[in-house]
């Protein structure tokens, strides 16, 4: 019984009966020459038996050729037509498979298993009404299931209903399949997916775990289906580490599953593990180079890595040569990410055009409005930029990205109190670690605004919050050091500058700040060394030049203890 459920394109075949007279030698593939080497052998039982043997051994092209030879000798045997259909199904030649099942059904019209096979083939051809009708007929006749049971018809009926968007009806079909066969793992795995989609997470998880525990009756599939469904469910519950572990199990069983590689990459991105995410997306693209969904997420991840040229190429590939399957995002999000890449490349006019395209496709996409504000800001069109963030907030009041961008614009306009409020709203929004803006990004920017408002203790606290999430954030360390300097906590400031220098020893501001803090501690020798390092990196650094002059004056003052 064929149970593999692989989406295909828009192939079509009518379910009606048509006569196919297959002659020996009309099979597919290069394996036929060996099968047909025995010319002149006109023994139907030989060819029919050889067809079944090849089918059971997974040699599907040879099986088709042998079946064709048998059918050339006897067109009236439904078993050979059925075996031929099974081999073609395994070769993903679904239209021909359904045609063969039709021939078998014409010769054995009361065979429920044949009707179910035709149902499964019609599902793969996206002919869902015909599939459901065929499975219903199989269940109504309830005759000749061979080694199977009505559970298989309920299962394939559920698949047809699910793919046609009839989710609750599909759930009922899966539950009938499981009632008949409680150890039907693939039906349990599909039930898990439906329950998850219906928001019944606890029941869904139980169904997936049951499928894996039973580990029987997967058809031509395997436990990777249940592991992948479980991973998606865990992701929806923000149990990201567990979801990654589940995807690892799924990919260990099905390493060519592009969808699982993509979903794994998305989770790694949410966790801020962007280099690892990129590896996952690369595997997915290698398997399915035209997946718009994968290319879009690869583009977004490359943007987060600052690799804007490759990001631009990935987004353009998704839009121009992709398969048009965008998942739940749609092409507008690809234009948003293309705009991000163009902004990173400082092509602000092109970025604005891409943002406008995204808005034209989906005016209710908050990210499109929010990201439109960025090139406008860079083009010094601040009021338009501010208006774009307001549109984004009107669409999605909980968008951290929209509030974050508004905070940046308000800061640039000198409206610091409003900027603090905007950053506070961003912190209460939908920001995730790993997604831009991260919580750490928001805390860093908020600390800078609080510093400008001379709210130094709060500025240090905000920087500390950023460091709690990303301890290696040099901007957070720098802002913290500035706040500590303003609070005259010079020793802590020196320590903080040193941490920043460990991350980026080529930043003149860090060395200059350390030199100033050491001067206030009257450690003039070390202060001079730090200041000179800053000037080595940036000879025109104004604060370092001033500090060097003050330090030299202090060092040249006579020491009172040495005077008589």
UniProtKB/TrEMBL annotation:
This is TPR repeat-containing protein. The keyword Repeat applies. It comes from the Bacteria. InterPro entries: TPR-like_helical_dom_sf, TPR_rpt, Ycf3. Coiled coil: none annotated. TPR repeats lie at residues 78-111, 151-184, 224-257, 258-291, 332-365, 400-433, 440-473, 474-507, 508-541. Keywords: Repeat, TPR repeat. Transmembrane segments: none annotated.
């Amino acid at each position: 019984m064929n149970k593999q459920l692989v989406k295909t394109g828009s192939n079509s075949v009518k379910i009606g009966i048509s006569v196919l007279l297959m002659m020996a030698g009309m099979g597919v593939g290069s394996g036929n020459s060996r099968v047909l080497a025995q010319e002149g052998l006109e023994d139907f039982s030989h060819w029919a038996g050889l067809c079944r043997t090849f089918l059971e051994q997974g040699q599907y092209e040879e099986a088709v050729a042998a079946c064709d030879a048998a059918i050339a000798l006897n067109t009236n045997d439904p078993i050979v037509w059925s075996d031929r259909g099974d081999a073609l199904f395994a070769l993903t030649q679904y239209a021909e498979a359904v045609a063969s099942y039709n021939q078998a059904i014409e010769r054995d019209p009361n065979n429920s298993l044949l009707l179910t096979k035709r149902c499964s083939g019609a599902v793969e051809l996206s002919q869902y009404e015909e599939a459901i009708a065929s499975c219903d007929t199989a269940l109504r006749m309830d005759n000749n299931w061979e080694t199977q049971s009505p559970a298989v018809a309920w299962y394939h009926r559920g698949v047809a209903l699910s793919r046609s968007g009839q989710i609750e009806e599909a759930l009922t079909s899966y539950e009938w399949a499981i009632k008949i066969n409680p150890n039907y793992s693939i039906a349990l795995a599909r039930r898990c997916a439906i329950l998850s989609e219906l928001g019944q997470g606890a029941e869904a998880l139980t169904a997936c775990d049951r499928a894996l525990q039973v580990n029987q009756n997967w058809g031509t599939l395997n436990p990777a289906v249940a592991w992948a469904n479980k991973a998606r469910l865990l992701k929806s519950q923000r149990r990201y580490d567990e979801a990654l572990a589940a995807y690892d199990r799924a990919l260990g069983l099905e390493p060519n599953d592009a969808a699982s590689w993509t979903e794994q990459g998305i989770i790694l991105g949410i966790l801020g593990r962007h280099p690892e995410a990129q590896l996952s997306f690369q595997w997915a693209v290698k398997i399915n180079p035209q997946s718009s969904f994968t290319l879009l997420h690869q583009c977004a991840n490359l943007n987060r890595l600052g690799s804007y040229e490759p990001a631009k190429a990935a987004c353009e590939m998704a839009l121009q040569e992709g398969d048009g399957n965008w998942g739940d995002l749609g092409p507008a999000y690809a234009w948003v990410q293309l705009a991000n890449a163009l902004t990173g490349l400082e092509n602000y006019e092109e970025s604005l055009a891409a943002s406008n395209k995204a808005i034209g496709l989906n005016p209710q996409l908050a990210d499109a409005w929010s990201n439109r504000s960025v090139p406008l800001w860079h083009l010094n069109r601040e009021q338009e930029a501010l208006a774009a963030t307001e549109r984004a907030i009107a669409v999605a009041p909980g968008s951290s990205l929209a509030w974050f961008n508004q905070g940046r614009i308000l800061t640039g306009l000198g409206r610091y109190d409003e900027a603090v409020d905007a950053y506070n709203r961003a912190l209460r929004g939908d920001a995730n670690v790993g997604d831009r803006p991260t919580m750490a990004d928001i805390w860093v920017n908020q600390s800078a605004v609080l510093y400008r408002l001379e709210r130094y203790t709060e500025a240090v606290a905000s920087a500390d919050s950023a460091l709690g999430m990303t301890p290696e954030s040099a901007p957070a360390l720098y802002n913290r050091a500035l706040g500590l300097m303003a609070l005259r906590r010079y020793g802590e400031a020196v320590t903080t500058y040193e941490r920043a220098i460990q991350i980026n020893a080529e930043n003149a501001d860090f060395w200059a700040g350390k030199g100033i803090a050491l001067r206030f501690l009257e450690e003039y020798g070390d202060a001079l060394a730090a200041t000179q390092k800053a000037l080595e990196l940036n000879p025109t650094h104004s604060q370092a030049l001033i500090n060097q002059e003050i330090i030299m004056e202090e060092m040249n003052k006579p020491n009172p203890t040495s005077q008589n």
